[in-house]
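Submission checklist for the structure archive. All mandatory fields must be present; incomplete records are returned to the submitter.

[x] Identifier: Tyrosine--tRNA ligase
[x] Organism: Parapontixanthobacter aurantiacus
[x] Residue count: 410
[x] Sequence attached
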Amino acid sequence: MQEYKSELMRLLEERGHIHQATDAEGLDKLACEKIITAYVGFDPTASSLHVGNLASIMLLKRVQQAGHRPIVIMGGGTAKVGDPSGRDETRQMLTEQTLSENIASIRTSFEQILRFDDSETGALLIDNDKWLSELGYIELLRDVGPHFTINRMLAFDSVKTRLEREQPLTFLEFNYMIMQAYDFVKLARDHDCRLQLGGSDQWGNIVNGIELARRLDGRELFGVTAPLLTRADGQKMGKSVSGAVWLNEDRLPAYDFWQYWRNTDDRDVGRFLRLFTDVSLEEIRRLEALEGSEINEAKVVLANEVTTLVRGKAAADAAERTATETFAAGGSGADLPTLHISREGARVNAVLTELGFSASNGEAKRKISEGAVKLDGEVVSEAGQLIELSPGEQIKLSLGKKKHAVLRGV
């Protein structure tokens, strides 16, 4: 682990947030000398962000915790173009009204996690449509275009992947990297923003912005990316059997959100406690060292801490209380956990694991072979049985006499 002098870089490093940095030593030195303004961009393509976005939000939280200023950039302008990174197809075009409504809805999550005030370290939320929509096409081509070569743009993974797979990449999407680079220049000019943070897939876009600022203004900017987050089972963060794990309450009930974290793989507990909570490193070392059934203590701490961060303490307390009543006391009725099943359906063994009724798919198969699993009272004989439900349809899943859940189609 690298030794940093600034609280910002030490905090990012010890919590596991750093994957790459353009000039770690220079940034460390600057963070010791002054308050740094840093930003992360988010696409308002849905009415809520999901758990996969939480790692990026935590980067901004760490910035503020270390005494610096975070800026949330809502990509109301870039969303009209669409980031081709990590995508195999063109994004659906959204209307101005939809984008505006999504931004208003997403803002509530940031207000729960970050501190917005008029102080030097108070967070800002800015829509990049404010300046991108005002740019003239000829003006952008003349001022910014000369600093981007087609050769280099074609070398970016997001572009190469589409072309290699012979999948369409529109000229509109091709311009995304130029627009994001301009965002960094604009924020540096207007807010003295010196640092862009993001996921590892944003490295190329961040470097573009740094180089553009150097060429246009002779300004030195910095970039830091976080590791690509996957779970120990190889799945992408933010996905569950029932679909995306949304941050907003109106998209996913607090109990289901809490249960997602309670069902964390044993191997991920320590890492997630570092990334997504403020639990002390000493306490995390104690919790991740627990073995056997005792590791469940750490999972409950993780679930409570993250749910409190995203939904508030009352939501976390209610979720834990429901879990205790349901799983320990054999609760029923309204207390039963609910798992939403998408149109694609879900396998019984995967559902058991997602609910926390089994520690792994292997254990779920064993319980099914023992005849301990029932759907609406009928014994399940095949672990790979596909559960398919129409929207609004629901059935009861039972493991033995004490563990029950409601499966509902969406």
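[x] Structure attached
Curator remark: The mean pLDDT is 87. The radius of gyration is 23 Å.
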